[in-house]
Amino acid sequence: xxxxxxxxxxxxxxxxxxxxxxxxxxxxxxxxxxxxxxxxxxxxxxxxxxxxxxxxxxxxxxxxxxxxxxxxxxxxxxxxxxxxxxxxxxxxxxxxxxxxxxxxxxxxxxxxxxxxxxxxxxxxxxxxxxxxxxxxxxxxxxxxxxxxxxxxxxxxxxxxxxxxxxxxxxxxxxxxxxxxxxxxxxxxxxxxxxxxxxxxxxxxxxxxxxxxxxxxxxxxxxxxxxxxxxxxxxxxxxxxxxxxxxxxxxx
Length: 251
Ligand SMILES: NC(=O)c1ccc[n+]([C@@H]2O[C@H](COP(=O)([O-])OP(=O)(O)OC[C@H]3O[C@@H](n4cnc5c(N)ncnc54)[C@H](O)[C@@H]3O)[C@@H](O)[C@H]2O)c1
Known about the structure:
Layout lengths: L6 E5 L4 H12 L3 E6 L4 H13 L4 E5 L5 H15 L4 E4 L14 H29 L2 E6 L12 H21 L4 E8 L5 H7 L2 H10 L12 H8 L10 E4 L7
Parallel strand pairs: 1-2, 1-4, 2-3, 4-5, 5-6, 6-7
Helix pairs in contact: 1-2, 1-8, 3-4, 4-5
The structure holds nicotinamide-adenine-dinucleotide.
Nicotinamide-adenine-dinucleotide (NAD) binds next to helix 1 and helix 6.
């Protein structure tokens, strides 16, 4: 129980990678705050049920990561309920694939609002309490797209490259207060977001063959690296971005 006594707030934890991280960090001993948009009540209840069945506390907070006031209110509510937040996982993200030439400005803004500004707002809302305690763990879910964009994901890749840069700069700005900031760059992980993009079993098979391990990722594959970055196993690791991609890409 390497995370026993810790509380983790995970954005976008109703489904997909965020839900797997909520359950995985709970299995490692952490109490959990699921912070997501309103709705998806059934999915939230399911995740909460798994966490409580593992003997951990779980609180739900409604929060839109693009809205500064809602982020601050949601994090204040979560902190009041749990006492403190030790671990922040900035996981909420969106991807609507479009070629750059056909991309409208609204879509560009929406991707930067959720994927990049969301990281800024949630991190800034949680840092004061971490600085006060001189301890904290921040994990940003970036993407392999941050390393190399692919056609139709240029705008998304640009947001995720921003997330890696934010990770590196935050690490330098908050390290003196004992807070680490690291990023995970998942490859293709089979969630709603990935299936919307891949669209068919043929595409799943094709991309599976492109990985060294000959399979695409399960959301659970992201849990181990997140536990590592959340725990004292990674005390001297900060400002790093780890590819979790089954050997799809190597830089
Ligand atoms: N699935 C993949 O292959 C893959 C690969 C690389 C990176 N990622 C990243 O991992 C993260 C999770 O992806 P996923 O595949 O689980 O996606 P998903 O679409 O299944 O889940 C995204 C979650 O984010 C929440 N969300 C969206 N906008 C939000 C907002 N404004 N405020 C609060 N919550 C919001 C959604 O409600 C949902 O619960 C994202 O940041 C994504 O970019 C995913």
